[in-house]
């Protein structure tokens, strides 16, 4: 380079602004660990990698590198509204055995013959535990519909005595929850004015997995049920876990000073490992008492999991057998292969169902890894989508086509055998 060119280059470079700070040095540059600034795990907002593992990351000075658009770190622990993820909510009243129950569901209707993913959450959770995951599903299949319910005594679903006197006895038996799910599906169809149900994929997490498996086994949805997916629950490990459930419940906070502190506890304890999902789902798990015993901690759990103990065994006994025997495509999505019991191990080796494992997720797979869970569910749906199947022609149709090409056929469309063709000539 000539002296004139060097002089010109220096004059131009001198006018440039200083380089923005780098949070990660390129591994190829031989950076030491002390020069790196790892993210605090509680600030992790998404489940997908936001940057190459081999490139230097240079953030824009005006925004956080890992912040979701419109959900910046300045409001990192504020709650997100259900309208960020669904187009409408429905309140579906039902009177049964002198009990008034108002089922609450979140809905985004399918379009253009798209499938309907029906989501059932686990014990103590709510329909919003699928909020971020369903957003990811619709990014892949915009025409897909989502129906995510709040089970009775969870979220915004309420139960009261029809005569207005006394409290409703808690009933979270598997039979009751399965009946509730069928009512919600049919009543949503009626409310939305659908002539027929869309093709359905049932998805259930934990307790919800037991419920959707029970519904699939009973076959009440008929051919409209394409497939069902169970998230992180199997009979063997679930029954084992019940032994330590009471101990776990005794260690978690019973009250929170604010909604924000409730969200923070879920992320710091890694109960939910994705902050965005925690901001969407946790507010539906808590409510503010009007006259709290402890005014400094007004927020309490909507669902008292301790009171559900009488139903724990009922939820999971026989789950593996029903899962393998029910008709339809089957997916088991786990956070670890150690959760498989003997019956499911045998079934998996026999190819009776699809098994996927996300070891980087905790128990709340759909919340910890929403994008990956969504992609797995979409791929699972596509493998079971009958409308996409191209079936081979029937043998009779092939014979008729061959006969027509040869100019041989019967007036009524019957394909003639060799003996029948004798004495019968082609029509002019």
Automatic annotation (TrEMBL):
Keywords: Hydrolase, Serine esterase. Its EC number is 3.1.1.-. InterPro entries: AB_hydrolase_1 (IPR000073), AB_hydrolase_fold (IPR029058), PPase_methylesterase_euk (IPR016812). One of its GO terms (molecular function) is protein methylesterase activity. Belongs to the AB hydrolase superfamily. The keyword rRNA-binding does not apply. Residues 117-375 form the AB hydrolase-1 domain. Demethylates proteins that have been reversibly carboxymethylated. Demethylates the phosphatase PP2A catalytic subunit. This is Protein phosphatase methylesterase 1. The keyword Hydrolase applies. The active site is at 206, 232, 363. It catalyses: [phosphatase 2A protein]-C-terminal L-leucine methyl ester + H2O = [phosphatase 2A protein]-C-terminal L-leucine + methanol + H(+). Pfam families: Abhydrolase_6. Residues 1-74 are annotated as: Disordered. Residues 54-63 have a biased composition (Polar residues).
């Amino acid at each position: 380079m000539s002296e004139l060119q060097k002089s010109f280059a220096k004059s131009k470079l001198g006018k440039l602004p200083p380089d923005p700070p780098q949070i990660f040095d390129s591994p190829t540059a031989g950076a030491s660990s002390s020069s790196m600034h790892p993210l605090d795990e509680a600030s992790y907002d998404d489940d997908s990698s936001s940057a190459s593992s081999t490139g230097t990351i240079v953030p824009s000075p005006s925004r956080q590198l890992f912040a979701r658009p419109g959900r910046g770190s300045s409001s990192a622990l504020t709650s997100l509204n259900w309208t960020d993820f669904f187009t409408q909510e429905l309140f579906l009243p039902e009177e049964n055995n002198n009990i008034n129950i108002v089922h609450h569901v979140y809905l985004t209707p399918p379009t253009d013959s798209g499938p309907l993913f029906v989501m059932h959450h686990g014990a103590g959770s709510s329909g919003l535990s699928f909020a971020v995951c369903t957003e990811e599903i619709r990014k892949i299949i915009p025409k897909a519909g989502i129906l995510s319910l709040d089970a009775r005594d969870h979220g915004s679903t309420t139960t009261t005595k029809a005569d207005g006197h006394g409290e409703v006895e808690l009933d979270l038996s598997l039979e009751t929850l399965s009946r509730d799910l069928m009512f919600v599906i049919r009543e949503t169809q009626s409310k939305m004015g659908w002539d027929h149900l869309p093709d359905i994929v049932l998805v259930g997490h934990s307790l919800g997995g037991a419920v959707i498996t029970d519904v699939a086994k009973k076959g009440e949805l008929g051919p409209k049920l394409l497939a069902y997916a169970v998230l992180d629950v199997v009979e063997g490990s679930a029954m084992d876990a019940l032994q330590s459930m009471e101990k776990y419940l005794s260690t978690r906070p019973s009250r929170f000073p604010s909604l924000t502190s409730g969200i923070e506890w879920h992320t710091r304890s890694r109960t939910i490992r994705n902050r965005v999902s925690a901001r969407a789902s946790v507010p539906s798990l808590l409510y503010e008492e009007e006259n709290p015993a402890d005014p400094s901690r007004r927020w309490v759990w909507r669902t008292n999991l301790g009171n559900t103990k009488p139903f724990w065994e009922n939820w999971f006994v026989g789950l593996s057998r029903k899962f393998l025997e029910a008709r339809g495509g089957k997916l088991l999505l786990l956070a670890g292969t150690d959760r498989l019991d003997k019956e499911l191990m045998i079934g998996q080796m026999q190819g009776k169902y699809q098994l996927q494992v996300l070891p980087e997720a905790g128990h709340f797979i759909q919340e910890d890894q929403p994008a990956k869970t969504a992609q797995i569910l979409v791929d699972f749906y596509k493998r079971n989508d009958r409308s996409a199947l191209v079936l081979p022609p029937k043998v009779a149709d092939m014979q008729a086509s061959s006969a027509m090409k040869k100019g041989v056929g019967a007036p009524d469309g019957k394909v003639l055998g060799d003996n029948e063709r004798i004495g019968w000539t082609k029509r002019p």
